[in-house]
């Protein structure tokens, strides 16, 4: 049952899920879901450019996503249009320009569905190295940036007043997002990257009592979703990306069920009383 | 308690003719003041008068577009912003909030929570706190880091009156124990902490400044607020020598009208003078309906110590 390609997909998918957990928490804390979507959609432009100029795929996706996020920061500073409208313009323009460019390049055959929805067959051993190498880099960066990132999530002015550098943390965060999008593209696909960021983090919220616990839980839940999704994908012969998202959604729905809630309240009451005495 | 101030020492922060402009409009201009160790400076003024902007400029969150700001090298700031909304998706207990911008020892966290009266809420999620409890948590966080300069933007908002007095008492004792400088923004135009060394009234520029009058001795005030309040709160009575017209121009007491308002344009009388209650000359004072200060009402409510002689 464990074909070689499937093991590769599983190893890559688990690495990816661990990486995106903490980052996904910041995406929902900072209300940046649509922002992540925009960066992810611009990845198709990166794919087109990589084919056109014969560049490394991940590198060109990373560069395009980073450029789009910087462009958005610049446009935001001009303040003429709302962030929402700007995101809508950038997101779909980048995606459409990518699609149009790919259509013009009649000399290359490209599996568009694979890019949009992920393709476990496409995961090579080199991809695994990139996912784990890039993932470890992202995790180290997140740990290093944790305090300024968290403080500026709560309030950037507070963070700056007390000697942290929220602008720099924000810039690094954008670059980490671009990196994660570049490595996630093959496994979940361009259109579904943000769901792998958001759904496990949202599921983790219910069980988390601190930001750090939520980040770790999000990674764990992501691993479950990827594993479940990939097995489903193999079994039902469905595209890997949507299968992973369906599995993640299943876990999210489970987390909404009211089990253990009564116990939680009781514990809370007991601990409050304990604190008084 | 005033011996913290050492005349040879440089102030913690010094603003010199500082102004901040956004979208072609001056939010605040010509601001000059300094805060030394052990000093409490209170900013008051109507909405949109540039209080928060001034405080943010002082601590370096905003850069002045004119003038300059000098901060003591390595200045450690504790900041309570005016508005702070924490997204529900962020699981944050009061205890975890304490170490948001820097590590603290467990004992330091405990002490800060204890002094603000919320030790029993250490493990509560901040989203479940009431407005007053949340303000205390923010204050606890700011003082736990033992700052050189404490900047409090409306720290008593959402706190009931007795809580307000307790918090002002706490702020006073923090100053007395640690000798830090305090920049306080008051949500009330006229009632300020009695311990305040300097009150600065802003309205896009420094309107006036001085020491708060000790009206706590006034029987009307005692009757209204009680003797406990009188020890903690004081009324800052101030007169304005100009009126802001609805079109943005300024009507001066000498009858002239100018586009803007500068302390040194010759229309003002002693912008740096300390205003007192009894030795106070109101002859050149014009109270307009849009004065923006509303202090007539307040002072009348307090038994009207200020007599208007216009």
UniProtKB/TrEMBL annotation, chain A:
A Gene Ontology biological process term: zinc ion transport
Entry protein name: High-affinity zinc uptake system membrane protein ZnuB
InterPro entries: ABC_BtuC-like, ABC_TroCD
GO cellular component, one term: ATP-binding cassette (ABC) transporter complex
Bilayer topology term: Multi-pass membrane protein
Keyword Heme included in the entry's annotation: no
Pfam families, sorted: ABC-3
Signal sequence annotation: none
Gene3D superfamilies per record: ABC transporter involved in vitamin B12 uptake, BtuC
Residues spanning the membrane: 6-29, 41-74, 94-118, 130-151, 171-201, 213-234, 240-259
Function recorded in the entry: Involved in the high-affinity zinc uptake transport system.
Keywords carried by this UniProt record: Cell inner membrane, Cell membrane, Ion transport, Membrane, Transmembrane, Transmembrane helix, Transport, Zinc, Zinc transport
Record-stated family: Belongs to the ABC-3 integral membrane protein family.
Entry keyword annotation includes Ion transport: yes
Lineage, opening ranks: Bacteria, Pseudomonadati, Pseudomonadota, Alphaproteobacteria, Hyphomicrobiales
Localization per record: Cell inner membrane; Cell membrane
UniProtKB/TrEMBL annotation, chain B:
UniProt-listed GO biological process terms: response to zinc ion; zinc ion transport
Record-annotated ABC transporter domain positions: 13-228
PROSITE patterns hit by this protein: ABC_TRANSPORTER_1, ABC_TRANSPORTER_2
UniProt EC number: 3.6.3.-
GO terms of molecular function: ATP binding; ATP hydrolysis activity
Region called Disordered, residue ranges: 255-283
Keywords (A to Z) from UniProt: ATP-binding, Cell membrane, Hydrolase, Ion transport, Membrane, Nucleotide-binding, Translocase, Transport, Zinc, Zinc transport
Pfam families: ABC_tran (PF00005)
SMART domains, A to Z: AAA
Enzyme class, UniProt record, top EC level: hydrolase
Family from the record: Belongs to the ABC transporter superfamily.
Name the UniProt record assigns to this protein: Zinc transport system ATP-binding protein
UniProt organism field: Rhizobium giardinii
């Amino acid at each position: 049952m464990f074909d070689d390609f499937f093991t590769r997909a599983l190893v890559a998918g688990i690495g990816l899920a661990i990486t995106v957990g903490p980052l996904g928490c910041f995406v929902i804390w900072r209300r940046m879901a649509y922002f992540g979507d925009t960066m992810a959609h611009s990845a198709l432009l990166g794919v087109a450019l990589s084919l056109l100029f014969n560049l490394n795929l991940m590198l060109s996706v990373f560069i395009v996503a980073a450029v789009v996020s910087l462009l958005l920061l610049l446009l935001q500073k001009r303040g003429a249009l709302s962030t929402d409208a700007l995101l809508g313009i950038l997101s779909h323009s980048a995606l459409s320009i990518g699609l149009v460019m790919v259509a013009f390049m009649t000399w290359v055959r490209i599996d568009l569905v694979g890019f949009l929805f992920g393709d476990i067959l496409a995961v090579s051993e080199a991809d695994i190295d990139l996912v784990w190498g890039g993932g470890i880099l992202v995790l180290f960066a997140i740990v290093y940036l944790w305090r300024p990132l968290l403080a500026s999530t709560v309030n950037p002015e507070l963070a700056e007043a007390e000697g942290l550098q929220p602008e720099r943390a924000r810039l690094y965060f954008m670059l980490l997002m671009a990196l994660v999008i570049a490595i996630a593209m093959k496994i979940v696909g361009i259109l579904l990257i943000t769901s792998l960021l958001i759904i496990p983090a949202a599921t983790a919220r219910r069980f988390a009592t601190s930001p750090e616990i939520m980040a770790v839980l999000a990674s764990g839940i992501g691993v479950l979703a990827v594993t479940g999704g990939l097995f489903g994908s193999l079994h039902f012969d469905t595209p890997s990306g949507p299968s992973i998202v369906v599995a993640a959604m299943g876990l999210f729905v489970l987390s909404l069920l009211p089990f253990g809630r009564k116990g939680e309240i009781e514990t809370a009451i007991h601990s409050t009383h304990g604190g008084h005495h | 308690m005033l011996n913290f101030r050492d005349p040879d020492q440089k102030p913690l922060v010094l603003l010199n003719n500082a102004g901040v402009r956004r979208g072609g409009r001056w939010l605040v201009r010509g601001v000059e003041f300094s805060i030394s160790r052990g000093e409490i400076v209170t900013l008051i003024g109507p909405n949109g008068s540039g209080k928060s902007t001034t405080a943010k400029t002082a601590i370096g969150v905003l850069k002045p577009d004119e003038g300059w700001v000098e901060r003591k090298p390595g200045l450690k700031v504790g900041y309570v912003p005016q508005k702070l909304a924490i997204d529900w998706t962020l699981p944050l207990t009061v205890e975890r909030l304490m170490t948001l911008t820097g590590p603290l020892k467990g004992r330091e966290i405990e002490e800060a929570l204890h002094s603000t009266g919320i030790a029993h809420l250490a493990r509560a999620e901040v989203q479940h706190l009431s407005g007053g409890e949340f303000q205390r948590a923010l204050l606890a966080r700011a003082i736990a880091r033992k700052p050189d300069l404490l900047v409090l933007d409306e720290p008593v908002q959402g706190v009931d009156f007795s809580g307000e007095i307790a918090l002002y008492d706490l702020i006073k004792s923090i100053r007395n124990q640690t000798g830090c400088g305090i920049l306080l923004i008051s949500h009330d135009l006229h009632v300020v902490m009695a311990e305040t060394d300097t009150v600065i009234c802003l309205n896009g520029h420094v309107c006036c400044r001085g020491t708060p009058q000790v009206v706590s001795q006034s029987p009307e005030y005692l009757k209204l607020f009680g003797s406990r309040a009188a020890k903690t709160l004081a009324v800052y009575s101030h007169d304005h020598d100009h009126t802001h017209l609805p079109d943005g121009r300024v009507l001066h007491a000498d009858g002239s009208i100018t586009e803007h308002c500068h302390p040194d344009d010759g229309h003002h009388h002693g912008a740096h003078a300390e205003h007192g209650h009894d030795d106070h000359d109101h002859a050149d004072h014009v109270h307009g309906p849009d004065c923006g200060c509303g202090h007539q009402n307040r002072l009348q409510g307090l038994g009207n110590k200020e007599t208007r002689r216009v």
